[in-house]
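Predict the 3D structure for this chain.
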Amino acid sequence: MKDIGYYKGKTARQNVEEALVSAKRHEDYHALLSLTEDRALERADMVDSGQLTGRLAGVPFIAKDNFLTLGGPTTAASKILENFEAPLQATAIERLEAEGAICIGKANLDSFAHGSSTENSAFGPTKNAVDPEKVAGGSSGGSAVSVALDIVPFALGTDTGGSIRQPASFNGVVGVKPTYGMISRFGVVAMASSTDVIGCFAHTAADAQLVTAIMAGSDPKDMTTLPDYFEPSKDMQSKKLKIGLIGDFMTDDTDEGVRRNVKEYVERLKTVGHDVQTVSLPMAKYSLAIYYIVVPAEVASNLARYDGVRYGVRHEGAKTLDDLYGLSRDDGFVTESKRRIMIGNYVLSSGYFDAYYLKAQQARQLLINQFDALFESYDILLSPVTPTTAFGFGENTDDPMKMYLSDAMTVGVSLAGLPALSVPAGVSDGLPVGIQLIAPRQEDARLFDLASSMESSS
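Done. Predicted structure below.
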């Protein structure tokens, strides 16, 4: 465990203090919204005194600010939750802390995870770790940048349609999107309940695998979690795999530099003995349309609870209950959240449910069937993570469709509930390029094995 193991050579207090210093030194990147300094140092002292032990004892980490944590606010980068103090912690946080890990702060994100660049944060955007003139990606941009800048060895994110994989690609780190239901979502602010997953960022596949294994497992507080199944394999790295390169994502719509890096990665796979063939996924061209009908419908339902009454910011000038709801939500939600609420309510409304939402769910099943058919012949599928490298600030903000297209290669995997990794695969014009490795459901270990073997062979 190269990166996480490095932290085991020092006291926990040293690890935490160094991480806090690094976080403050890199404040200009705006990767973090808050630090949980007092609680982190208290837990560090407990590790050093032997009261806390575990596989991650003394290792600092950062959580995306839609995870409920103690010691500071949980805002989801929104004004409506600006002062919200969580009364409990997410299951994923609890499991990491049970192994001695120490949360030092909360990372910036697109508000309520609605975005692909972290420009939709109510508290300002995060800068790319490699080129501060570019976006960090999103929605888990702050978490990705925190790892890329070496503030912490791992950070937590959520992935609904690419929100871990895309910023991992933009910042040159490993990003994990596990099988849907592998890790409990209890205590994490919901975006779209049928595609939300919990994952992490790290520098190596081995470190990401360790963190994932600790968080994984069934949880009685989340009825969508699967029975425990994740068991890291011991002999898969020597197995030669049959891999399908999704040709639908290797067209002229994808930047030449991205395609070049993918082809070079494919050649490396062939060099070590894997069989790589180009495959077709015809439903891929419809995946973005399916996603932006299904997901806004779930977003609208999940955001209905933020009404200015039960928790969060309440508009003080409201005269009636309707005013309270309307004004609190108008002030509390960013433009992109409002857009998704409107789309979601439209496709769920009487007269449009059958025409849009039901058709999208039927098309979603066809997409799932095509993935399943490919996995009858191939062990792993491969594609770029995004059609471009990180783009500039403001480049896509005035054109929502252009912004949504940055997720074109990741949303299909989410709709199908499949596990995927984003792994660094080179650079194009000085900016990182990521490769997306995709496996059948509950075959997450296969991805980590392949990624680790490719890291060791490079």
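Residues 353-375 form the longest helix (23 residues).
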